[in-house]
Amino acid sequence: MATDTAMNGANSTASAPLTAAERLREKHEADAAHRAMVEDTVDEYDIAHPPPSAQAAAEPEAAPAAVESNAPLSEKAAGKQKARDESPQAVAGAKMNGVTPLDTKSEEAFPVLGSGPKPAGPAPTAMAWGAKKPSAVHTGLNGANGHASLSSMASSRASTPTSGILTPASTNTSIPHQPRGVPQHMPMPGRHSETIQFAPSQLLARDQLKKPLQETLRAINKRSKANVEMKPGMNGSIIFQGTGPVDATRQALKDLAKEVGSKQTVKVPVPLSVRPYIIGKQGAVVQDIQKRTGARVQIPKAEGTASPNVDDDDSLTIDITIEGDAVAAEMARRDIENIINERTSTVNLRLRDVPAEFFPFIAGPHNSRINALEEGRQVKIHVPHYHTWIGQPPPQAPSSGLPQFAPNAAHQIKISGDRQAAQEARAEIERHVQDLRRQITLSQLPIERGRHQFILDNDGATLHDILAETGCAVILPPPSEDTELLTVTGPQDRLELGTNKIIDLASSMQMSLVDIARQHANAPMGAQAHARALTRYLQQRQAIAQLERQFDARIVLPTTENGSTNWEVYHKDGRNGIRARQDINSLISAHPPERLRHMEVDPFFHQHIHQQSARRVRDEYGVHVLIPEEADNEPTLVLVYEGVEPPNAGEYQLPRQRPSDQEIEQFENGLRQAQQHILSLIQGQEDIGSASVSVPPKYREKILKFVHRHQQNLPPTEIPVQVSFGATNDSDECTLRGPSAAVENFTEKIAAFVESEKHDELERGHVTSFDFPQKYANYLIGKKGENINKYREEFDVDIQVKDGKVEITGPKAKAEAAKSKIIALGKKIEDEATHVLKIKPQYHREMIGAKGSQVNQLQKKYNVRVQFPRTAAALDDDRSIADDASEVGSVRNRRPNQAPDEVIVRGPKKGADEARDELLNLLQWTMDNSHTSNVSVAQAQLPSLIGQGGREMESIRLQTGAQIEVPGSRESADPNGRVQIQLKGTMKQVENAKKLLEQKIKVFDDSITRSIDIDKKHHRALIGSGGANIRNIVINAGGSDDRRDLARTVRFPPPDSDDNTIRIEGPKALVDKVITAIEAFANQRESQTTEVIEVAPDKHKMLIGRGGEARRALESQFKIGLDIPKLSSQGAARSQVKISGQPADVEKAKSHILEMVKDHEGETFQVPRKYHQTISDNGQFFRRLRQDHKVTVDHAGHQPPQRSAAAARPQVNGSAQMPLITDDHDSNDNHHWEIVDSGESQEEGEIPWILRGSPEGVAKAREMLEKAIERAKNQQSQAVGYLVLPDPRTYRFIIGQGGSQISLIRRQTGCKITVPRDQSQGSAIEIVGSKEGVEHARDMILDVVQNGGRRD
């Protein structure tokens, strides 16, 4: 190539004439371009290794300046680059031999051999799987030369051979232009040349070679198509050059390295989380690496390096050892590092060397520093909140200099995200930590514990404010430590400012003392003892915590046994302090000494009483048992009377009123019974005995497990034996305490057990080995070794599983038993089946159920494992399968072989088949009920759609069966003021709900709002009694008669305001008519008069009627307003009734009212007592007489007979089958119905009925009464029906507005209907009447419920 520059760049120029030899070389090169060689033919199956000539042709020629550059070179340019570590003479020697080494780091040039020596230069930046750079970029065959020192986050334990190894280089036949005057190398076209260079330490000694080196070379050259030559190198190194076809050359050099190279050992640091991927399934990956490279790869066992945070910490590393010759070791190292690079694109790091005292400064006030670090980087940084020390207190303040802060293993900073971003963030934090070590000091000051709470606050906001204001952080002691010292940390020049701030905050608190013993100074057990027992009881009952929350206070209880019993109450607000003291005194007064009883019980029985009797004593006698802490070893139990409560009574509420004498007597009776029960439980046991047995300390844990195993099925009435050991670790004493017979029995068993263990020690070396299918090894081992550890503990042997073999080491008998168990497990697993179901991710959450309820039920029912795809986050072992459910889009699936739409069912074949079928049925149901739709609605319409108490929306839900999600009030609307209501259910349910909602939305969207001014004095009359007048106006205008619709249509101003504006909303035609009617009413009221008549107060009830019915009827009939004095009226006004309206209407109403209240002589009828209840119909008959004929009834002081007892009412909550709330609400069959015959009253005699009213009314009432008596006589018996609906919330539809619906059903069926008030307890609707009437009433009720309160 005539345009190439000479390597030395000094003896030639581009314009110099060419010699004859140069012209001949150019001709040969031109001819070679048209002569295809076998080696140049592209192998379409070998994409990773294109022929060298193809690579050389594709690469541009290097510029002369590249010779001196540190940038990576192309393969051609590498041929011009002199070796950095070689002398000029060596370079010249290489040129004389016609060999120019290429770039030793080029994978294209030499993909299977190592990289060449790295030139001296700056040490690379420390990197890792978080802390160090992948070893693929390090120099030196063994990964030693040029390695940067690892950071503290990941220590390097690599041991490498001596430096000096030079890795292979390769050349192509196309040699760059040589300067004039230098002998020219004329390569053969298509030939390939590569070299490897060994330091003396990397070659076998002459006496270790199987044959002389020259004979080895001849043997390799004889069997290979390549030719290998040996040449001397610098510093005693030896260069081997291979020439020939690419593959043959490389294989010959590999064979040579294996024959003459010494054994090399390389240690590669690998993230612990990548270890499984290097091993591969059943070791497939590591075995392939060893087979291809010929090197031996040793990976440490998981047991020795396992950590609970392996998947959450990529800075934890292990050293993988590679053994083999230089070439094989380098090939294996490259393969391993390729796997590392693939698996660590994102990392999780932990900073373990950072003291927790630095955390507030690292995070900054309100996490400002961390937020700045995260901004613009794909990284998340978690700095734990550290405001209370636990386990490791801060260091003591030094007399001079800075304190030595130590890291705490329980508190670590976590960094996760992109590897480069995580490394940068970690480096920045570590630099900040170094600065903090040179700046941060501390000061400690004692502050009362009660004041700590107000420095900390619930959300820690005060601490952030202190840090922002003063530059100092505050560390509080934990509640469990008996210290008041509070630690302030910060720079020396800011420490005083921070300390003053803390003192100011603490001194702003107020403290009050409450003497608990004062109220009960005469307690029989002593005031102090009573106060301490009561304090313990209230603390256990969470009363102290409740008081602190209620009054925003901090209560410090006495800590010493013999000291003061005062409670210290700290508070900010003086009023809260007074209220807290008042409530505490109320609690103390409600618990006098008579409510507590002390009893002495041997501490040995405390645990048994707590486990077996405390619950029963509380339920049967209403007594709470307060048991001392085990560490106290006190014999005194405290019994506190709380009272027997009914089942499902909820959480016990502490009393706050002083008990009466009767209650104190009840206390003493309950406490006495509870004490007798506890004493009988103890006295019924055998004498408690104790015994000692000699047990070597190494068997202590086994003894405890042995005793627990023998007593785990002990009956509740028997007291277990307790085991304790000597105080020192080397003591052989083992003490047993419990029932004498049991102690004696266990003494013999433990002695025999110890002897058996000693005998087993002699057989610990026995090994039993047998085959176990490798594919079942994971089942035998279990999650994190759970199963195999269980077998090890059960049989007291060591079990190892490897390469299809199980090896059991331990006593022969135990090993054989374990072997039988494991073989049985293998046979059981063989019956296992696995089903993979394709289920779209959007159905996973509903199929899993809340907290995994549905999936867990399936697993338990069929003894199978159901695996949904997991989320990207690390999972805890104790998490439910529901928490492992994923939505589509998981970034890092922890089950890489499970697709996001795959659900795996694994277990015994029968159970797996049934679980699969049930899952598919559940999927079908979920799909059928997962139709969704959105309805756009004005945000202002939401209250009317929801209705009062959600009644309107609930009616739509019940009517259609669809799920309706209404947006909350805090959700913002779109620019048009509209929000989306989501519907979900079957297609039919969604369509019906959407149709109903759209109808309501259309009415609202078509509505207008107008306002009119009507004098405030007319508003009350315009509304009318109970809203009757305005209701009539709206209904007559074509509006709805629903009370909620009425309230929205016409809105009056509040009664206490001066506003006269009435707002009318609705369709335009309706609004116009309502306004016209209201204005006409107001005009009419302007011309009305008011007249006062005298009516005796005892007659007022005749004008009012039941629920105001008579009054409303009069006002509607005569178009007047009736003002009846209230019961609180005094004097003459008490009997003055005002009539307002048009003069003519007032006169008519006045005449009618005077006629109503005129005294009438009563007419008496004798009614058989046995028919009284039937005729009265729960008072309905009396109401009809008053409403229809203005006739009242009394019985001249006679007591009405009791209702006759009907047949036994069915136990709806007991044996009868209740309908399910999940049943299809569209069906009328989802109810419980039972009909029985009622009994006939056995009452004898008669009862007077005195009818009072106008003669015409009394006559008609008499006629009605005679007919009712005749019907009662002819009616032989009645039927009673009991109806229970699936949803008690629908009962209100049966009653209707103001009882209108149930009154209609009663009139049409002639039945008495009683709707229970306690609808949540499964109570039934009672229907009494003829059998036909009862059946008709039931059908009408079901029709009303089906239509959501409206009948067709």
Automatic annotation (TrEMBL):
Keywords on record: Coiled coil, Repeat, RNA-binding
Coiled-coil residue spans: 980-1007
Limits of the K Homology domain: 262-341, 345-434, 439-507, 764-827, 831-924, 929-1002, 1006-1083, 1087-1158, 1159-1270, 1277-1346
GO molecular function: mRNA binding
Taxonomic superkingdom: Eukaryota
Regions of compositional bias (Low complexity) in chain numbering: 54-72, 148-159
A GO CC term attached to the entry: cytoplasm
CDD domains on file: KH-I (cd00105), KH-I_ScSCP160_rpt3 (cd22448), KH-I_ScSCP160_rpt5 (cd22450), KH-I_Vigilin_rpt4 (cd22408)
Compositionally biased residues, Polar residues: 1-16, 160-176
Annotated spans, Disordered: 1-128, 142-183
Keyword Cell membrane: no
Compositional bias (Basic and acidic residues): 22-38
UniProt cross-references to PROSITE patterns, sorted A to Z: KH_TYPE_1
Protein name in UniProt: K Homology domain-containing protein
Source organism: Cladonia borealis
